[in-house]
Amino acid sequence: MSEAVMPDAVVSPPMGGLYGEKVGGPVVDFSYVGIDAILEQMRRKAMKQGFELNIMVVGQSGLGKSTLMNTLFKSKVSRKSVLATAQEKIPKTIEIKSISHDIEEKGVRMKLTVIDTPGFGDQINNENCWQPIMKFINDQYEAYLQEEININRKKRIPDSRVHCCIYFIPPTGHCLRPLDVEFMRRLSKVVNIVPVIAKADTLTLEERDFFKKKIREELRANGIDVYPQKEFDEDAEDRMINEKIREMIPFAVVGSDQEYQVNGRRLLGRKTKWGTIEVENIAHCEFGYLRDLLIRTHMQNIKDITSSIHYEMYRVRRLNENNSMAAHANGIPEHHLAAHEM
Predict the structure, then answer these.
(1) Adjacency order of strands within the sheet including 259-262
(2) What CA–CA distances, in Å, run from 199 to 125, 252, 325?
(3) Which residue from 3, 119, 173, 217 has the least number of CB within 10 angstroms?
(4) 284, 254 in Cβ contact below 8 A?
(5) Which of 22-26, 101-105, 184-188 has the highest mean pLDDT?
(6) CA–CA gap between residue 269 and residue 47 (Å, rounded)
(7) Could you tell me how far CA 24 lies from the centroid of its own chain?
(8) Which of 227, 72, 105 has its CA nearest to residue 162?
């Protein structure tokens, strides 16, 4: 009797994922869509493109602008460090000098541009000395605008706009000078200003606290809105964080690119006969708070406000000017143009 031949059992092919991942591992959560993966996609794209940051430093000679920038980025990024000359004279008029660096830390690349303003506040007559600085900031907005309105514009427009202006206040311990008030009053409308008290180690703690309080009162009295501005707080959490920062402004800072050995630790500081002033010790100065604001917590917000507020105001004004000029050239009455815009 012949043995019945049974057909081979049909085995279904193993089901794999879309990209060939193995089956039979952990239980798959079928309710998971994967929307949160956008964060990783954005991170990878940002890492490839890199970042840009343009910082302007303004203040009279001898306040430690170059040293503070070198301290902030732990490298020789200031104009004086790169373009040092044997003899440097005070320029007769304000000059605008910028220098760019490519900085990389843990795989993150950033193009840093430091804009210096030698000659500011160093003359006998400092009337209208803010005008070249205002012109430079507006020129960067104009360059960006012209690239933006091109028919065949670049995929990524080079960003030379000034994101932040660090304004150095001399450590007099009394009050702001008329020059300080006028500069910040005018420039705060076109750029993010962060005021700092330079060389704060020349003041006692009591003098420093009094000076900071006096400056905050004068800023309020003159309607000067420095960064972070109250009207740009997005929610209650932002408001709470930024209120703490506003209570500390202006930051009393000390800069140093010299390393010293203190209790077995290498640190940046300024050595005196009474001891070593540790730059990153918040009990000694507020450099750490300034660094966190500019780099670790608010860098992107500073850039966003530059783009969406300061540059946007400039763009609207310029386009309105162009529309008015075109209307006059075509003989259209101005009130007709205004009615059309409304």
Answers:
(1) 259-262, 265-272, 275-278
(2) 24, 8, 49
(3) 3
(4) yes
(5) 184-188
(6) 33
(7) 50
(8) 227
The CA distance from 204 to 43, in Å, is: 45
How far, CA to CA in Å, does 135 sit from each of 128, 181, 233?
A: 12, 19, 28
The token duo for 104 is 């990389």
pTM of the model: 0.84
Report the half-sphere exposure of 153 (CA within 13 A, side-chain side). 12
Residue 129 in tokens: 């000395």
Query: What is the helix (H) or strand (E) element at residue 67, kind and residue range?
Result: helix 65-73
Contacts of 117 (CB under 8 A, 6+ apart): 56, 57, 58, 94, 95, 96, 97, 132, 133
Answer yes or no: are the C-beta atoms of 97 and 116 closer than 8 Å.
Answer: yes
pLDDT tens track for 10-23: 444 555 554 545 55
Q: b vs e for 33-53, b when ≥16 Cβ sit within 10 Å of the residue's Cβ? A: eeeeeeeeeeeeeeeeeebbb
User: Which helix (H) or strand (E) element contains residue 194?
Assistant: strand 193-197
How many Å apart are CA 193 and CA 302, to the nearest integer? 10
Q: How far apart are CA 229 and CA 224, in angstroms?
A: 10
DSSP code for 228? S
Residues 249, 216 contacting (CB under 8 angstroms): yes
Task: Return all residues near 258 (Cβ < 8 A) that are at least 6 apart.
Answer: 268, 269, 270, 271
- The confidence score (pLDDT) of residue 2 equals 47
